[in-house]
Write a structure and sequence with these properties.
There is one protein chain. The chain is mostly helical. The longest helix is centred in the N-terminal third of the chain and has 28 residues. The two termini are 31 Å apart.
C-alpha cells in the first residue's frame, strides 16, 4: 500500500511538471506556425501514433455510446481548451498568465462537481474560491495595465478553463471505464474536427520548419499529448475528480518559473502575491481539512 502511495505521488509530480511545459511548448512553437494550424498538425500526428498503437495491440473497442462520450470529451479538452490557450498565447498572452487563469480549473471543477455530483461545499471551500479568483484577477489586471496581453486573450483562456473543467467531470462520470487507447484516438479525432476546419478557413496554414518548431511539435506530441494526457486519465481513474484537479494548483507557479528561465517573463511582488493567493485558494477548495478548525465547517 505504501509503495502504491509513493508511486501515485511520483506520477502526480511528474504530471504537474509535464503539464506545465505545455504552455511553454506553445509559446516556443507559435512564432513559426499559426495556433490552430499548429494544433491540427499536432492532433493528426498523435492520431497516427495512437491509431497504430491500437491497431497493433489487443486494445478493446468502443461502443457507440462510449465513442460519442469520447468525442465530446476530446472536443472539449483538446479542441476547445488547447485551441483557446494557443490562440491566446499567439495574441500576446504570457504563458504564465495563461497557466494562472486555467489554473482555476480545480475551483471550477469543485463547483461543477458540487452541482452535478451533489457534493456539498463548506465555508472553507467557498472562501478558497473567492481567494483564488481574487488572486487571478489581481495578476490579470496588473498584466493588462502593463500592456501585456489583452482582454481577448483573457476571454479565450476563460473559455479554455470552462472546457477543461467540464471535460474532467465528464471523464470521471461517463468515461472512467472506457478502453483508454481507443478512447484517446477518438478524442484526438474529435479535436482535429474542431480545429482543422477553423484553421483552413481563418489561417494561412504556413509553417516555418525551423529546429525550434520541430522540437516544440515533437515535445507537445510525445510528452504532452501522449505522455501527460495519459497520466491525467490514469490519475482521474484512481482518484476523485476534485482530488486530481487539486494537482493543477501547482501548475501556474511551475509554468511561471519555466517561462521566467526561457522567455524572461516576470512577476512583480504584487503579482507573486496573486499567484500565491490563487494557489492557496485552490488548496483550500480541494483540501479543506487542512484549514478547518476542530468543530468548525
Amino acid at each position: 500500500m505504501a509503495a502504491q502511495s509513493r508511486a501515485g505521488l511520483m506520477v502526480a509530480r511528474l504530471f504537474v511538471v509535464l503539464w506545465s511545459t505545455g504552455f511553454i511548448g506553445a509559446k516556443l512553437g507559435l512564432p513559426h506556425a499559426e495556433p490552430l494550424t499548429f494544433l491540427s498538425l499536432r492532433f493528426a500526428i498523435v492520431m497516427a501514433i495512437i491509431g497504430a498503437w491500437v491497431a497493433l495491440s489487443d486494445a478493446r473497442r468502443l461502443t457507440a455510446r462510449q465513442a460519442a462520450d469520447a468525442a465530446l470529451i476530446g472536443a472539449l479538452i483538446h479542441g476547445v481548451y488547447l485551441g483557446g490557450v494557443f490562440v491566446a498565447i499567439s495574441l500576446g498572452t504570457e504563458a504564465g498568465m495563461s497557466a494562472l487563469i486555467v489554473g482555476l480549473q480545480p475551483i471550477l471543477t469543485a463547483l461543477i462537481a458540487g452541482r452535478v455530483l451533489g457534493e456539498r461545499l463548506g465555508r472553507v471551500q467557498w472562501a478558497g474560491m473567492a481567494l483564488g479568483v481574487a488572486g487571478v484577477a489581481l495578476v490579470v489586471a496588473r498584466k493588462l495595465d502593463g500592456g501585456v496581453g489583452d482582454w481577448c486573450g483573457v476571454a479565450l483562456c476563460l473559455v479554455s478553463l470552462v472546457a477543461i473543467s467540464v471535460a474532467s467531470i465528464l471523464q470521471k462520470t461517463r468515461a472512467a471505464d472506457h478502453p483508454m487507447r481507443a478512447a484517446a484516438f477518438v478524442q484526438f479525432a474529435a479535436a482535429l474536427a474542431v480545429t482543422a476546419p477553423v484553421a483552413l478557413l481563418l489561417e494561412t496554414n504556413r509553417i516555418a520548419w525551423t529546429g525550434e518548431f520541430v522540437f516544440a511539435l515533437g515535445w507537445l506530441v510525445l510528452v504532452l499529448s501522449v505522455g501527460a494526457i495519459t497520466l491525467l486519465y490514469v490519475l482521474i481513474r484512481r482518484g476523485a475528480a476534485s482530488n486530481v484537479a487539486s494537482l493543477f494548483f501547482l501548475v501556474p507557479a511551475s509554468t511561471a518559473l519555466i517561462a521566467w528561465g526561457l522567455f524572461g517573463e516576470t512577476l512583480t511582488a504584487v503579482e507573486l502575491g496573486g499567484v500565491a493567493a490563487t494557489a492557496l485558494g485552490v488548496l483550500m477548495v480541494n483540501r479543506p481539512g487542512l484549514f478547518r478548525l476542530p468543530g468548525r465547517g
